[in-house]
Amino acid sequence: MKEGFLYRVSLYIIPTMFVCLARILFFTCRVRVHGRKHRDSLVERGVPIVGSTWHYAIIYVLYYMRKESGVAMVSTSRDGEYVNRIVQKIGFASVRGSRNRGGMRAMKALIAHVRQGRNAALVADGSQGPARVAQAGSIVIASHTSAAVLPMLWSCSRYKRFASWDGTVLPFPFSRIDFFYGEAFDVPSKIKSEEIEEYRLLLEDRLNELYTQSWGLYSKKEH
Questions:
Q1: Centroid of chain to Cα 87
Q2: Beta-bridge mates of residue 94
Q3: Terminus of the chain with fewer CB atoms < 10 Å: N or C?
Q4: pTM above the 0.85 mark?
Q5: Which domains are seen in the chain, by residue range?
Q6: What is the spatial distance between Cα 182 and Cα 149, in angstroms, rounded to a whole number?
Q7: Distant-in-sequence, close-in-space partners of 48: CB < 8 Å, separation ≥ 6
Q8: 168: Cβ contacts below 8 Å, ≥ 6 apart
């Protein structure tokens, strides 16, 4: 009973503190945006966007996109509830699911949101990795909604890298953040199963090219 009570209290306190501290932290950082033309061209076309990024970058990607009308997929795990509440406090809608639990239901919900006019944000390498190996979720959603897939990543001058499978990065205060949009691409509707792999590899290649480019600013091959 005590553990359940503490967990419920922590679900309120931790996400609230995290969002407040993130706002203060990111306010101190200098941000440069690269490749904005890739996003602007989609906006001009009136095309919905499936923003796709690597797991390590998700904290700042969600913050950067906080003013968008977006929806994100969040893991159904116990710890995922913290992330779910953070996502909602930032201003995103959320659906719950992962590759191993509730994934199909979550995909259908994401597709419905995009069809209603929201942009989607997906972690391309999923909730459990392997890191920087794309899964097919973004491709499937784009195929069912006529949305374009838009790669997004960022790097920074000074940061804390956590010892997790994805190497999650948190910028230090007053660091410089370089946010990158990659070249977007369309996915055919009613895509065949063998074509999904082709576009999955295309997404993986473009994200990894963006990864190399972004961290190359700081003479790093990897963060």
A1: 11
A2: 72
A3: N
A4: yes
A5: 2-216 (3.40.1130)
A6: 10
A7: 114, 117, 118, 119, 120, 145, 146, 147, 148
A8: 55, 56, 58, 59, 161, 162
